[in-house]
Design goal:
single chain; alpha+beta; Cytochrome-c3 Hydrogenase, chain B; 2 domains; three-stranded antiparallel beta sheet; globular; disordered N terminus
Length: about 400
Amino acid sequence: MNLEPVNNFNPDEGGIPEGFSRTSSATKSSEEYFLNMGPQHPSTHGVLRLVLRLDGESVLGVVPHLGYVHRGLEKVAENQTYLQNIHLTDRLDYLSSHINNLGYCMAMEQALDIGIPERGEYIRVMICELQRIQSHLLWWGVSGMDLGAITTFLYGFKERELITDIFEELCGARLTMNFFRPGGSFADVTDGFIPRIKQVIEIMHKALDEYNTLLTGNIIFQERTKNIGILSKETALSYGCSGAVLRASGVSYDVRKNDPYSIYDRFEFDVPIGSIGDCFDRYCLKIEEMAQSVRILEQAVQTFPEGPYRSQQKAVYKLPKGSYYSQVETARGLLGTYIVAEGGPKPYRVKFRSPSFSNLNILNELAVGHKLADIVTILATLDFVVPDLDR
C-alpha cells in the first residue's frame, strides 16, 4: 500500500485538505495527521485517491478524490450515433459490460417501441447472469487478496476464465464486451453456448462450496469483516445506495424483482438480504447472489427456445423527440440510463446513474472510528469500479 503525506496544505499556516472542516479533535496526546492513500490502485479497485484524517491508526475522516480516469463519456455520447454509443457503456463498469449494454438498448427500445423475440430475451438473461457471476468471481478473488488470502485470487479466476471464454466466443472480447443491440443482439449464440453454460453450472455448485471452506469460514477473515463498516438501513437509503450494499442493510430491493425487465419475472430466484449491514454481510450476500444467478441459468437452459434472436435491424436509428429512461440491476446495483432525443441520429443528452458513485459516498460514514487497515476491508466489500465513478 502506497501511503504518502498530503502535500497540498501547510498545517503551520492553518491549511487543511479540501473536503475537511477546520474544526479539529486533536489534543496534546493525539497524533492527528493527514495522509494520501493513492492515487494508484488502492486495494486493486482503480485509480482513486483517498485523503485520510488519522489519529495514529484510527480513522477520523475520509474524503475520496475522483477524476483520474475521467473520459467525458456522457459528452462524447452527444457527438456519436445511438449505435456507436452502445460501446461507450462497456467503459463504465467494465465488469458489467453486457448489463450496461442492455440498459442502453432498453432505453432505445422504449423510444422506438421495439419488441424482442423470446430467444433474444433468453440470450440476454443468460449472458447478464453469466456476467454477474463473472464480476462477483473477480470481486471474491481480489477481496480475499486484499486481506492477505492470495490463494482466493487463483481460485476465483479459475472459474471466471470459463465464463470469459464464453464471452470471447460470442463477441471476440474478454473485458469491454459489446454484444446487445436494439431488438436483441448483433448475432445469435454459438452451438456450444448451452453446453458451455451447463458446464459452468456444474462447476459453480462445487466452487461455491470451496469458496466458503477457503474464505467464508476462515476465522481471521471473519474477524476482519464482522462488525466492520456497519451501514444502517436509513443511511443506505439516504445516500441512494443499491445492490448488495443496500440489501446487506436489510432493504430488499433488486430491479430484477421490484421493477422486472426482460423476462426476469419468468424465473424463480431469491433476493438475499442482510441484517447487520457490516462487511461480512455484504460479503455473504454476494456469495449467495452467485448461487441465485446459477439458479436462473439452470432454469433458462432447460427452456431455451428456438427462433429469431433479433426483431429488426437498421443502419441508422433516430429516436423520436422526448426523454427516455431505463434501469437494470448490474453486479454492483442500479444503473439508470437517461436519454434526451431531438429526433436525429444522435442524442441531445445522455446521463448514466452509476451504482458505484452512490455506494462510494458512504465510505466516510463507514470508516470513521475504525483503523487504517479496516479501510481496505470496507473498500473491498463496497465493490465499486472507478471508471463507473468518473465516466
